[in-house]
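For the sake of transparency, this paper describes our internal protein records without simplification. The tokens are whole numbers drawn from a learned vocabulary of local backbone shapes. One such record is reproduced below, unchanged from the form in which we store it.

. . .
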Amino acid sequence: MNKSLVVILSFLIFAVEMNCANSQKKLSVGSEKTLIVYLSRTNNTKVVAELIQNKVGGKLVALEKENPYPEDYQKIVDQVDRENEEGYLPPLKTKIEDLKKYDTIFIGFPTWDMQMPPPMKSFLTENDISGKTIIPFNTNAGFGIGQGFEQLRKLCPESDILEGFSVEGGYEKRGVFLAIEGEREEEVSDQVDTWLQKIGLL
């Protein structure tokens, strides 16, 4: 057989296999294989989690502590500062018994103290998610993700971590709580579409 023909056929076979692999990856992101775990205080991260669920399906789970944080903003800031300094991992009320059945897990959290919130650190420490595809998303007050995504990579060294998504939400210190609503929610929805397309999940 002509060498050029062999090369062409080999390329075509490779292309078909890649297309099938991509299709299988997309099919694995659905209601039964996908979990969306999030922590949200002012509901901005919750809105993003719901947008993701509407686009790719999956089970939505909100993290809750056994002992809720105080409602007062300054009190929660002081408590989170202490927990981060001491490396304290607060016990969680939320338990996910069937975690093994999920192949893809979205992990969503706001930026607190320029870090990942302690309850999310608790979740990632308590649960074995090695070998799974982890997709982080974040809301913040305009100062970015801080160390959040880097901390996630350190806590999930044996997981396949895809590119994360971060967007500005509320600014609780200034009394701005739920900011991702109305026209702003539509804008964020478009940004989520672009992100999911970029990482091959939409």
Remarks:
- The chain has a mean pLDDT of 89.
- The CA atoms of residues 64 and 94 lie 5 Å apart.
- The chain has six helices and six strands.
